[in-house]
Amino acid sequence: MHSKHKAYVASAAAVVLAFGGPVAAAAAHTADAARTAPASTSARADVDAEGAAAAALKKYPGVVESLEKDDAVWHVDVIGKDGKHAELTVDSRSGKVFTENADDDSGDGGGNKELLAAKVTAQQAMKAAVAAHPGQVWSVEWDDDDDNGSRYWNVEVKSGGKTTNVHVDATTGKATVSGSDSDGDDNDD
User: Fold this and answer.
1) Does residue 144 contact residue 110 with C-beta atoms inside 8 Å?
2) Considering 6, 97, 155, 178, which has the largest number of Cβ atoms within 10 A of its Cβ?
3) Mind listing the pLDDT tens digit for each residue in 68-101?
4) 165 with 156: CB under 8 angstroms?
C-alpha cells in the first residue's frame, strides 16, 4: 500500500508541474502583488485641499465658496451655477463625498453673484497662496469685504508648525501674506 501512495503523490506532482505548479502560481501572485502595490499605496495617501475641491465639484458642480480641513474630513461649501448652496464633507482618506446640506441661497443679497463672477477660483487661489508661501493648504474662504469693495480669498497655509494667512485678490490673483500664527493654533478670527 505504501508504494501506491508514492505513485499517487508522484502522479499528482507531475500534474501540478505540468500545469505551472506552485512556482508558477507564486510567481504570478508576486507579479499581481507588484502590479497592485502602487495603486493601494496611493489610495492610502490623504486627499489634499485641491483633491477635496475636485471631488466636491464632481458631486456638486459649481464654485467652491470655502474649504476647511477638520481632522479626517474636509468641509467644502459649494455654490451651484443655479445659486443653490451645498455643504459637503470629503473624507480625507477615501475621497468619498457626502452631502450634509443643500439649500437655496438665492436670496443672499447678491453675494453669490460676486463669487460666481470672480476671475480667480478657490483652486487658483490655493495655487497662488502656496506659490507665495510654500506649505499645505488647510483652508480657503471667499471674503467679500463690503466696506471697501475688495474681494479676495483668505487661504490658510500650514508649514513647519506655522499657520500663515495669505490673501489672494479675486480679480488679479495676486497673493499677499497677511500674517502667521507660530503656535500652529488655527483659531478663526
Assistant:
1) no
2) 155
3) 999 899 999 999 888 889 999 999 999 999 988 8
4) yes
Give every strand in the sheet of 162-169, ordered side by side: 97-104, 84-91, 73-80, 62-70, 136-144, 151-159, 162-169, 175-181
Rounded CA separation 1/83 (Å): 85
Sign of CA dihedral 76, 77, 80, 84: positive
Give the confidence band of 178 by pLDDT, cuts at 50, 70, 90: confident
pTM score: 0.68
With residue 64 as reference, give the H or E element that holds it: strand 62-70
Residues 6+ apart with CB under 8 A from 118: 63, 142, 151, 170, 171
Side-chain-side CA neighbours of 157 within 13 Å: the count stands at: 24
Adjacent-strand bridge partners of 162: 159
Please state, in angstroms and rounded to a whole number, the distance separating the CA atoms of residues 92 and 128.
Answer: 22
C-alpha to C-alpha distance for 173 and 189, rounded to whole angstroms: 23
Q: What is the pLDDT of residues 117-156, one digit of tens each?
A: 899 999 999 999 999 999 999 999 998 875 667 899 999 9
Which residues does 128 contact at the CB level (< 8 Å), separation at least 6?
Answer: 120, 166, 168, 173, 174, 175
